[in-house]
Amino acid sequence: MTTHQLNLPEPSSLPGEPDSEAFPYYFVGDEAFPLMENLMRPYPRRQLTDEKRIYNYRISRGRRSVECAFGMMVSKFRVLETPISCKIDNVDVIIKALCVLHNFVRKQDGTLSIPAFEHPRETIIEIPIVNNVQPDRSRPSNQAINMGNRLC
To answer: Domain DDE Tnp4: where (predicted)?
Structure first.
């Protein structure tokens, strides 16, 4: 994530702020991850204001939703319980196939939920696999801090 190889879409306005400066796309992590420009995390638990507590709840809820979806996939497809031992190109295809199968099964069961907002097909991106990325343990940049504060 630190080498900008993920081919993320260009920054865009935040909902409710159509005239404001564009906001870059980002990933959400828990407290174990460093705060970076493309990785938002909750505020530390000491000295939280009500505003920061609400932000922490909302950002953690988004992360938990992804973890829950992955947990459902793992329970259906045991191959996800351990590292997949095959070529990286094949892993990419396997993961995509499992996502399609998961959605197909949910649709057949009548439990598929359609998000209220869907990106047009042109904005769907493929995220390449990035190997051997070492976490950045330095202090977060002012830009990353300002981005977190703006989301808050």
So the answer is: 25-103
User: How many CB atoms neighbour CB 139 within 10 A?
Assistant: 10
C-alpha pair distances (Å), 21 with each of 13, 14, 57: 7, 9, 25
Query: How many residues are given for the chain?
Result: 152
Please say whether the beta carbons of 23 and 148 come within 8 A. Answer: no
Structure tokens at 133: 């990325």
In Å, how far from its chain's centre is CA 65? 10
| Nearest-angstrom CA–CA distance, 1 and 22 | 20
How many domains are there within the chain?
A: 1
The position carrying tokens 């609400």 is 54
Would 146 be classed as within a structural domain? Answer: yes
One pLDDT digit (tens) per residue for the chain, 152 residues:
566 677 788 898 888 887 888 899 888 988 888 888 888 999 988 889 999 999 999 999 988 888 888 888 888 888 888 888 888 888 888 988 998 988 888 888 876 555 554 444 444 444 444 455 455 556 788 888 888 888 88
